[in-house]
Amino acid sequence: MKPETIAIHSGYEVDPTTKAVAVPIYQTVAYAFDSAEHAAALFNLEAEGFRYTRIQNPTTAVLERRVAALEGGLEAMCVSSGQAAVNYAVLNVTELGCNIVSVPQLYGTTHTLFAHVLPGQGVTVRFAESDRPEAVAKLIDEKTRAVFCESVGNPAGNICDLDEMARVAHDHGIPFIVDNTVASPILLQPIEHGADIVVNSLTKFLGGHGTTLGGVIVDSGNFNWKQNSSRFPTFTEPDHSYHGLVYTDHYGRAAYIARCRSVYLRTGGAVLSPLSAFLLLQGIETVALRVERHVENGRKVAEFLHADPRVEWVKYAGFQISRRTQAGYAAGESGGREVAGLPSGLDNSSPNVSRGTTQRGSIAGNDPAQHWH
């Protein structure tokens, strides 16, 4: 199916009772059980089904399946924000005393998480000196548990070489995690280029309306946790919080999301509400068309700024897209975000920009949320 069709139909089958064509909003916390034995089987992960909305919900499950299909992944898990998605994606592969390696070009709050919050919890993040694969490779050691990058840096606009970055990670027996928020699965599917785990902020291009926070983690199902069990025993050895369950034995290729849901979503509680899931589904139905306009608008703004002698510099992925087009990245498109440097004292500048200092403006096409830093 084409992305336009997936965005409208994937992940939902007509409700068997009401025959509702639109996805229902299951605004419920709890679910009925057939018996005490049935309830026990659900909570012990011995049977499939819904048991508590902090763990899974029917409306949210449609959103999870739809985004997984858009990204070309096996399974997905929604959370309350994009930052929660990044946090849980990393926590699910790390433990006390280990590290991950990241490119330096990151969204500001992700940098804060990596540079300050995770180290306080015993997980070190090593920042490479550039986004080149060789810079990442030299920081990996026996304690490294993942390589992380953004497909298109926010707000830097750099485009990572995903294929080579994936090769570096896999050569060392660790997964490659990619934040695909800026490109979106409409322009780029990192899994096609070797990514194992993909995260998105649903708040941005996928949701589109600027009304609803949300995040999602998508698992490709391709990383072999058993083959790399010495680094990832939490997937291949008994989990005593679930009566000795072994995730790779019980869930096979879907072990990553199953553990993330059972451990981090269940205990951390960064849950996406069913109503939010419904609102985000409405946005996703038009994402393919909207991204086309984002790209068109972003390119026009970048070219306008680039041609204006009053603008000191412009960073826009479209100006470097030819480096990656041959690799099939982003279908030759670059998204709708650009960053510009405005000289101090610039007349007629946006009233949103305070004068007197060099300004760094990050413009997201026609995204309802305009960002100035």
Features:
single chain; alpha/beta; 373 residues; four-stranded antiparallel β-sheet; Aspartate Aminotransferase, domain 2; 15 helices
Care to describe what's here?
This protein has 2 domains: 3-282, 3-Layer(aba) Sandwich (Aspartate Aminotransferase, domain 2), CATH 3.40.640; 288-372, no CATH class. It starts with a helix and ends with a strand. The model is unreliable at 321-327 and 351-373 (pLDDT under 50). The longest helix is centred in the last third of the chain and has 21 residues, at 287-307. The protein is an alpha/beta fold. Helix 1 (3-9) runs antiparallel to helix 3 and helix 3 packs parallel to helix 13. The protein contains 15 helices and 11 strands. Helix content is 36%, strand content 14%. Strands 1-7-6-5-4-2-3 form a 7-stranded mixed sheet, with helices on both faces. Strands 8-9-10-11 form a 4-stranded antiparallel sheet, with helices on one face.
Q: What's the helix and strand layout?
A:
Elements: H1 3-9, H2 36-43, H3 58-71, E1 75-79, H4 82-91, E2 99-102, H5 108-120, E3 124-127, H6 133-137, E4 144-150, H7 162-171, E5 176-179, H8 184-187, E6 197-201, H9 202-206, E7 215-219, H10 233-236, H11 247-251, H12 255-268, H13 274-284, H14 287-307, E8 313-316, H15 322-325, E9 337-342, E10 359-364, E11 371-372
Parallel strand pairs: 2-3, 2-4, 4-5, 5-6
Antiparallel strand pairs: 1-7, 6-7, 8-9, 9-10, 10-11
